Amino acid sequence: MEIEDNEKKIKVAEDQGRAYSAALDYMKEMDNHAEKEAGDYIISLASEEAEGTYQLQDGTLKWNTPKEGFNTHLEIVVRDKQDKRFIPGLKISGKVLDTNGNQIIETDFPLLWHPFLLHYGAFFRIPKEGKYRVQLEIPAPEFHRHDEIKGKRYEKDVRVEIEIAMETGREPHGPE
């Protein structure tokens, strides 16, 4: 009975991973993207124009446009390498470098709720469209992990560099 229960749990996790990966594949069709495996993770990047977001301010959701001059949005998806599920609760930081190695920005990439694809990300300015190197640091998460066998994941900090073609622009936001 325990083996059947364990197999069912694994299948449920893998089904979640397939559903999330299908949403990620759809996003990849719309934006520039790059992907790399590192440690227990599959890390996917997507670049798109800067866009507005709702943020809670004084207890009310308010629409905020990107800061003046911000012209890009870098999305980061971190999935489990085994079951492909999104990994929440990470504290991702990183740098974006141009092709000459000049640092464009160093920033944190907080969780962004999205209607169909949870991801981490940040808005900032790049000088022009083109290839950039993104260096990410993902400390081993502090959240608890269930399961004495399958829960033994994400033990080590991960550092990874991924090259991506980034685009510039701003989504229309009405009066700014």
From TrEMBL:
InterPro entries: Metal-bd_Tp34-typ (IPR018470), Tp34-type_sf (IPR038482). The keyword Signal applies. Keywords: Signal. Belongs to the UPF0423 family. This is Iron transporter. The lineage of its organism: Bacteria, Pseudomonadati, Bacteroidota, Flavobacteriia, Flavobacteriales.
